[in-house]
Structure prediction request, 154 residues.
Amino acid sequence: MLEIGNKAPGFSLLDKEGNIVSLRDFAGKKVVLYFYPKDNTSGCTIQAQEFRDAYHQFVDLNVVVIGVSKDDVKSHQKFCEDHNLPFILLSDVERKALQAYDVIKQGSMYGKPVTKTLRTTFLIDEFGMIEQIWHEVDPKDNAGEILSYLRNQR
Prediction:
């Protein structure tokens, strides 16, 4: 399990345009890396809209916002278009980053086994270290919580 102060696991994943995006691309900047279950579901849409509405505040603080789910590139394209999302969404269909960040949980739904993505947000500092972790976040408060934390660190 990852903890504050650990080196953030690296990743290289596809964005909504099919371009490879790696964590190392953002060296020297803070990164909000949020993991969410599925595009266009109610909680995930609320969370994405909250990040969208606060996006310029993150930009003003020189912070990159990246969302990651197991959805494919095409799903991310539609999600971004439907909700005018200005930040990066990455596709992790092979669940490599989800596993590296330990945000997968085995569960059951209607008696059948399912793999769930835990709604978790990491703040990664300019040196690639985990500065803060928010577990089981409330979709409607996540962006605000992070902005409050960032402003209190200044």
